[in-house]
Design a protein that fits this description.
The mean pLDDT is 95. Helix 3 packs across helix 9 and helix 10 packs parallel to helix 12. The protein has 418 residues and is an alpha/beta fold. It has twelve helices and 16 strands. Strands 2, 3, 4, 5, 8, 9, 10 and 11 form an eight-stranded mixed beta sheet that branches. The protein has a six-stranded mixed beta sheet with strand order 6-7-12-13-16-15. A two-stranded parallel ribbon has the order 1-14. It starts with a helix and ends with a helix. It is globular, with a radius of gyration of 21 Å. The structure holds pyridoxal-5'-phosphate (PLP). Pyridoxal-5'-phosphate binds next to helix 6.
């Protein structure tokens, strides 16, 4: 089959595609300890609330028709957009109107739109890239540009902490914005590391974006106010130069495919236009299912009393257990400040993280090799990229411990064979 450039780029073996395939195949083989995926956990009390909301909609003829029988406008479900603007104003005084919010089919598609709105070729022939203040960053960005060589990223500063922990910081000496930068993008909390860039770092990024008249894209998929998978101090921010991307996925609703973008009016109008062209309208399900929870602020107690404690407790248990079983073997874990992963760093590991991943898979444990998470880094010699693993800890404690036991055994074996 002959394909256009677009066809070739988007059908080649992208990192995310082979990763999803590999994880899918491992899952299909069964009998594996899955610590690789980004699926949210299913918390029974939370699921019960969603079921209740869905039932209420299905039992009401008018709501049911709204749910499955009508196209929403390209900007998304009107009442949800209005209530969400009111909710964000109530909590943060952002002074939003309904013209500041658009829905998309998952925030992944919002990023696809935004990256290609601000990165790539401009009308004057210049080419701009998306600047990531640091990598590791979310693998889902890596292939989302319409052209090649789309991202640039700086290496982070690494702060070593007690108890074998560490934390990445933006290295503001290495982080530079050029004429060729179209936008800055950062996830907060970060997938895969669980890092939460500090308020100070965010302020600096904000100032840089403002100074260079480019937008700052904030990926809030795990952030505040929902799902609030943040275990440290962090202030939510928005202004006309920030494009804030939220999602219902990590609330436990990934299959509703609901992304939410909060931005200045012209960005929202542009995204609505792209929605109209690419899919006519975003889906209605997520908006309708969470409408009442947002209207009466129940979403806050859901996040603060159920979802966040669930993940925080699991993160702490996994870190404590790993510390116990690793003994003197060299390892570090990124301070778990948010999201739903542990980011493990084995400095000086004699094998690559991909090789470790393969060995673990042989032993029935599926994780993700860290090298996938360095989009935009052009230093192939940087050993750190091949010394890390991303591990999901949201399964039951016994399974997580079994998985961590096998990781510890394989890492110890690799070190002692060298
Ligand atoms: C950091 C980050 N951003 C965005 C997404 C996309 O999520 P969704 O398209 O489900 O909203 C994910 C999904 O895992 C993520 O981890």
């Amino acid at each position: 089959m002959k394909l256009s450039r677009f066809g070739e780029k988007f059908t080649s073996r992208s990192g995310i595609l082979s990763l999803m395939d590999d994880l899918g195949n491992a899952l299909a083989e069964g009998d594996k300890i899955m610590m690789g995926g980004g699926n949210p956990a299913h918390i029974p009390e939370v699921d019960a609330i969603y079921q209740q909301e869905l039932k209420r909609i299905v039992d009401d003829q008018a709501l049911f028709t709204r749910l499955v029988g009508t196209y929403d406008p390209p900007q998304g479900e009107k009442e949800f957009v209005r209530e969400l603007a009111a909710y964000l104003n109530r909590h943060f005084n952002w002074n939003l109107t309904e013209r500041n919010i658009a829905l998309t089919n998952g925030s992944q598609s919002a990023f696809f739109m935004l990256f290609n709105m601000f990165g790539g070729e401009y009308a004057d022939g210049s080419v701009r890239r998306i600047q990531l203040p640091m990598a590791p960053e979310y693998i889902g960005y890596a292939d989302a540009g319409l052209s090649h060589d789309f991202f640039s990223a700086a290496k982070p500063e690494i702060e070593l902490l007690p108890h074998n922990q560490f934390k990445y910081h933006v290295d503001f000496h290495g982080f530079q914005i050029h004429d060729t930068t179209g936008a800055i993008c950062v996830s907060r909390p970060t997938n895969p590391t669980g890092n939460v860039i500090t308020d100070k770092e965010l302020e600096k990024l904000r100032a840089q974006a403002y100074k260079h008249d480019i937008p700052l894209l904030l990926d809030n998929a795990y952030g505040l106010p929902f799902p609030n998978l943040i275990f440290t101090e962090a202030t939510p921010v928005w202004d006309e130069n920030i494009i804030l991307n939220m999602s219902l996925s990590k609330l436990g609703l990934p299959a509703t495919r609901t992304g939410i973008t909060v931005a200045r009016e012209e960005v929202i109008a542009a995204m609505s236009g792209i929605n109209a062209i690419t899919c006519l309208a975003p889906g209605t399900l997520g908006g309708l299912m969470t409408l009442e929870l947002i209207r009466d602020d129940r979403i806050d107690s859901l996040c603060n009393n159920q979802i966040k404690p669930f993940y925080q407790q699991k993160a702490e248990a996994a870190v404590t257990y790993f510390e116990k079983i690793m003994g003197d073997t060299p390892y570090r874990v990124h301070k778990p400040e948010g999201a739903m992963f542990l980011w493990l760093w084995f400095e000086g590991l004699p094998i690559s993280s991909q090789e470790l991943y393969e060995r673990l898979k042989q032993r029935g444990v599926v994780v993700v090799s860290g090298h996938h998470f360095f989009p935009g880094i052009d230093d192939s010699q940087w050993a750190h990229q091949h010394e890390c693993l991303r591990v999901t800890y949201s399964r039951d404690q016994k399974t997580v411990e079994q998985g961590l036991d096998i990781i510890a055994q394989e890492v110890k074996a690799a070190f002692s064979a060298s």
